[in-house]
Amino acid sequence: MPAVNTASLPDIVFMLLFFFMVATVMRQNTLMIENNLPFADQVEKLDKKDLVMYIYAGKPSENYRQYGNESRIQLNDKFADVKEIAAFINAERASKREELVPYLTTALKVDSDANMGLIGDIKQELRKVNALKINYTTKKGSVVGR
Amino acid sequence: MAKRAAPEVNAGSMADIAFLLLIFFLVTTTIETDSGINRKLPPMEEQTDPPVIKQKNIFTVIVNKNDDLLVEDEPMQLKDLRKAAIAFLDNGGDKSCDYCKGPRDPESSDNPDKAIISLANDRETTYKTYIAVQNELVAAYNDLRNARAQAQFGMSFVEMEANQKDVNWPGNKEALKKKIDQIKAEYPQKLSEVQK
């Protein structure tokens, strides 16, 4: 059997490498919670990535079981209380240019098994600081039959 | 001195290096999801007297802590919700809405402008059910708007909004904006939420 010519193997590998290098977005926040997003099909894309504030919520993941089994909020890199949301939003606003502040959107990345009580509290806090544009981040897919 | 040829670099290990990098990027890549359902929260304001709304103009959807749906006092499956919401919104009971295709039942909503969907959920409702219900209600509005836009302008509403956002779209944006606003006014999204 003749040996397979592997001369073009580096080229192929480089091609793949470049694809992944370009497609990679380094995660800003290390997630300390389970974050299995729900499905929806009437979705819109968030277009201005730098004008989005992320609020995560869900059960603490395996490594953080000492924080309990109840759904919690994560802001930046740590667990937070509902009351800290206002401060977080104000800090995010202060870090952006003034004219861009009205375009800020809050993206809620919430685990599908979280309960609505927590989300209701988050929404109430957001209303208090007048951050009214929100986006429920979801995966794309049909909702019926899941 | 004689010109010496540069010694050739051994490229044999190039593939190994590339593989190493490739595996590193494969492992660190997380394709972020950046799409979802956009909503606007109602602003905080002092308590004013609530406007008087006729019971027949309200479509109540209640989700309990076991994720069961109660729609207009009847239990309902999630898959039937979209159709029920469309029937309610498109009813046109007072005959002032000439584009409505509903049954014109005097016991249901007067016209799309007056029709309000009220969504109530329990503190223990799971998030995925809430999103599913929201999705179906938004879908009901989108379906109606799409049908209306298709009949009026030969283009679906979702397409019109996509064009509006697309910087490379060659058409007249001013005219498009007007069309979108017209459709939005004909089927305004009136969705109120309560938590028990």
List the helices and strands and how they pair.
The complex is a heterodimer of chains A (146) and B (196).
Chain A: H1 9-23, E1 39-40, E2 44-45, E3 52-58, E4 72-75, E5 78-80, H2 84-95, E6 105-110, H3 116-128, E7 133-137, E8 139-140
Parallel strand pairs in A: 1-8, 3-6, 6-7
Antiparallel strand pairs in A: 3-4, 4-5
Chain B: H1 14-28, E1 35-40, E2 58-63, E3 69-71, E4 74-76, H2 78-89, E5 116-121, H3 127-153, H4 157-165, H5 173-186, E6 191-195
Parallel strand pairs in B: 2-5, 5-6
Antiparallel strand pairs in B: 2-3, 3-4
GO biological process, one term (chain A): protein transport
Membrane topology (chain A): Single-pass membrane protein; Single-pass type II membrane protein
Transmembrane segments (chain A): 6-26
Q: Any overview of this molecule?
A:
The complex is a heterodimer of chains A (146) and B (196). Chain A has 146 residues and is of the alpha/beta class. Chain A has a single domain, classed as Nucleotidyltransferase, domain 5 (2-Layer Sandwich). Chain A is 27% helix and 21% strand. Chain A has a five-stranded mixed sheet with strand order 5-4-3-6-7, with helices on one face. Chain A has a two-stranded parallel ribbon with strand order 1-8. The radius of gyration of chain A is 20 Å and the shape is extended. The mean pLDDT of chain A is 86. Chain B is an alpha/beta fold and 196 residues long. Chain B has one domain. Chain B is built from five helices and six strands; from the N terminus they run αββββαβαααβ. A five-stranded mixed sheet of chain B has the order 4-3-2-5-6, covered by helices on one side. In chain B, strand 2 and strand 3 form a beta hairpin. The longest helix of chain B has 27 residues. Chain B is elongated and about 105 Å long. The N and C termini of chain B lie far apart (93 Å). The relative contact order of chain B is 0.12. At the A-B interface, helix 1, strand 1, strand 2, strand 6 and helix 3 of A face helix 1, strand 1 and helix 3 of B. Strand 2 of chain A pairs antiparallel with strand 1 of chain B. Chain A: InterPro entries: ExbD. Chain A: This is Biopolymer transport protein ExbD/TolR. Chain A: It holds the Pfam family ExbD. Chain A: Belongs to the ExbD/TolR family. Chain A: GO terms for molecular function: transmembrane transporter activity. Chain B: GO terms for molecular function: transmembrane transporter activity.
